């Protein structure tokens, strides 16, 4: 089901290969000629057809920038993007804008966190859904309308015919997010990128929206990239999980493997620090010390080192790689949890006094 | 009888809806809090959960007399403070404090941390207990107390000269907490104290709140939408829906055996960071959205979305919050039948476990 | 009691960081920006902004010229010379004594321009200060008290606002008469509603902020909250607007004096009146019109640049 991606990146071949293959994607903010800020550094991952790949991280981890870069939604000025993002073998990053626009909506779609800002406030919901249909398929006005009604109904919007004539502000938050998903699904995309799709919603509404997404994957075979900070959402939805910290992937594994045996100290710390609804209340939480602002540049040391309880001198090295620690389990850590680090790294470890 | 620090009886907070060209006229009321009774024992933590618009934040502020009440009573330490105003209310405020959701918004951006921390002391003076240690009120004794508070919340002394925008969210929240407890209050109401913070930092603040409670003997009312957080730090939890408490229970019992249909659906909707548990979790989905609190449904407020809704009673009779077991209060006509499994939810609402 | 230090809470300092890591981290982010208040931060951003510097240079030159006009100007503004050389079609040529020549009345043109700056500055600044004071008073009342005071004040302001600014100025000038004070009052009257609405809106926005609720819950007095917290935080947009309004005020001073509402004393130099006088000889001596026009435009531009840069520097979104 899930494409295993080794530390040595799997080849992005066309036939039978992954649907989306991101290789060494880097995004640097800043004018040309200036050092700039590296928001995303050499991120590689694959998404196979029908697969749900999670990208987890906190604010500033680069998870959203990754998706924006893949979709070509970052501004051209002041941003340097390198690497490649092949969709069915065609590189989305170097593709001309017009060609990418054809892909967007028809094959690739994106759902954002805030439905109010991603829907046009002065255009009715119906127009926004049918607009997408018109842009990619030749349809009569009546046919487009029928399809739009059907789409809204499938997305769990009650009384869809009436909703078509309403404006985004007349809908509640949950309805708006569903309308946004409906526009994203209008042309049955092969790949849906969701950036914190339920963060702004209440839990009962979140449950409805997540259920809708699960059905999509199951019934239409849509592949999905799920970007979120919520480990609960990841656990319930994803096949493959990438954990990002300070712009780089620090751990990658299958969902069950990651939650059962987190190896990176950041992932491990994150899981120990969140209160669980089904956990033992009497046990104190073990927080990760410091703040996400306590970072060190990756080219000098592990960026998580300033907050890590297991830090040693060996962590101060600029060439820490994402290395395989087990089948389908890659970790970027000198002292991974539950066992020895990969040979290449252990060779240089000197125990701290 | 238990020693309750703060109590509410049939408390109501209504916001007028105003319209008008020249002079505003009241055309209706949003019933943000509509008849809530609760009691918080001294030294304990009471959690208030519910979704946005349920009135939990308004209730929290009303307990501190930061909202105009439309009816009912607030009793603080045995005294009815519902009608208290002016100077007596202002003096009382040193005993009850608040921690806010967004520490950036709740700290005046122009004030240095030193000014922010000593401001409450300049207004009220040092607490009796602190006079022995820090001496009489003076800028020196206030500064010493501020430094002590920073130590207590784990921030260095150098913090004093800085300004709120120079800190990360977690550090700012610690400053907000230091400011709230610097007067040695008895009651602290924390409104979504961790929801604006990064996941990796939330546990720090939760632990800090717990440690401060132990150290200073504080009584908390914690308002939050994250049931896992509330369950972790509360002794007792009240679940709110559309301005009323629908269920109240000790923290462990609420998760182990939710009684109200809303609590059941709420718990079933929360994703757990564990793929194994997720695969075996049965979800009960609610249909539709929250009705308008300006025009709440008749009868039981939850009947428009309740998967267990019956034709009898639900649409006509308002269910009372009644005690059906020791320490367990629930506002549902059919709670016993649902608990005993004699009533099943609407099959359309139930999503079977996803399996693997 | 308060001497208990929470045990399970780990402050940043408690972390076992090896020295090599500390070296690699370099100076902490916190150490670089120690104790920078909002205003200090805004000032620092302002200094880095090229358009702010250009604006500030223009404004400074303008103010210096205006203040030291009697010293800088080569002649008395009222003095006329060589009147015999002025005909309806010709003026004396530029010379070392008169670098910009003479105007139609035989006054030194450079002197006129320099003294014109003085006139614009005095009227512009005084009128803006008056407008600011009136507007801030009204807006402050509405913002501080709310309720019926707010409704009443804002209706008055709405009425003021519905009258076109220039028309209002002309009417005030018509009532008070042709005096410099009339100009000031006229221009100030047009500015009052702008400042009133701005300050009121700004204060209402601040009053809705959590820190005001926090101050209330801490038991601060209402007066303290408004005067020490709400008002200072509301001033940013008002200061920006005042700078921008100065630009319009200078244009309005010129416009009113162009329309003949300026000083009744014809010997007082005003850029607006210079424009009118220059018009007659626009074909033969365009510099008589162009130079005062340029002065008005450049000065207004200076204040606008400075105001816009100030707005950006004070914008909380552009912080850090």
Task: Explain how this protein is built.
The complex is a heterotrimer of chains A (353), B (356) and C (320). Chain A is an alpha/beta fold and 353 residues long. Helices cover 31% and strands 20% of the residues of chain A. Chain A has a domain at 115-188. Chain A has an 8-stranded mixed β-sheet with strand order 6-7-8-3-9-10-12-11, sandwiched between helices. In chain A, strand 4 and strand 5 form a beta hairpin. In chain A, helix 4 (125-136) packs across helix 5 and helix 4 (125-136) packs parallel to helix 7 (173-185). The longest helix of chain A has 18 residues, at 203-220. Mean pLDDT of chain A is 83; it is low at 1-15 and 343-353. Chain B has 356 residues and is of the alpha/beta class. Chain B folds into 2 domains: 4-109 and 183-241, Rossmann fold, CATH 3.40.50; 257-351, no CATH class. In chain B, helix 3 (113-124) packs across helix 5 (139-152), helix 5 packs across helix 6 (169-181) and helix 6 packs parallel to helix 7 (199-216). The longest helix of chain B has 18 residues, at 199-216. Helix content of chain C is 68%, strand content 0%. Chain C has 13 helices and no strands. Chain C starts with 18 loop residues before the first helix and ends in a 6-residue tail after the last helix. Chains in contact: A-B, A-C, B-C. Chains A and B meet through helix 8, helix 9, helix 10 and helix 11 of A and helix 6, helix 7, helix 8, helix 9 and helix 10 of B.
SSE layout:
The complex is a heterotrimer of chains A (353), B (356) and C (320).
Chain A lengths: L19 E10 L7 E11 L4 E5 L6 H9 L7 E9 L2 E2 L5 H10 L1 E4 L3 H4 L6 H12 L4 H14 L5 H4 L9 H13 L5 E5 L7 H18 L2 E6 L2 H7 L2 E6 L2 E7 H6 L4 H9 L49 E4 L2 E3 L11 H4 L7
Parallel strand pairs in A: 3-8, 3-9, 6-7, 7-8
Antiparallel strand pairs in A: 1-2, 1-4, 4-5, 9-10, 10-12, 11-12
Helix pairs in contact in A: 4-5, 4-7, 5-7
Chain B lengths: L3 E16 L5 E17 L3 E5 L6 H8 L7 E6 L2 E2 L5 H7 L3 E4 L13 H12 L3 H7 L4 H14 L16 H13 L5 E5 L7 H18 L2 E6 L2 H7 L2 E6 L2 E7 H6 L4 H9 L5 H5 L3 E2 L37 E4 L2 E3 L4 H5 L10 E2 L5
Parallel strand pairs in B: 3-8, 3-9, 6-7, 7-8
Antiparallel strand pairs in B: 1-2, 1-4, 4-5, 9-10, 10-13, 11-14, 12-13
Chain C lengths: L18 H7 L3 H4 L5 H11 L1 H18 L1 H4 L36 H37 L1 H16 L2 H12 L3 H28 L2 H8 L4 H37 L12 H9 L7 H28 L6
Helix pairs in contact in C: 3-13, 4-6, 4-13, 6-7, 6-9, 6-11, 6-13, 7-9, 8-9, 9-11, 11-12, 11-13, 12-13
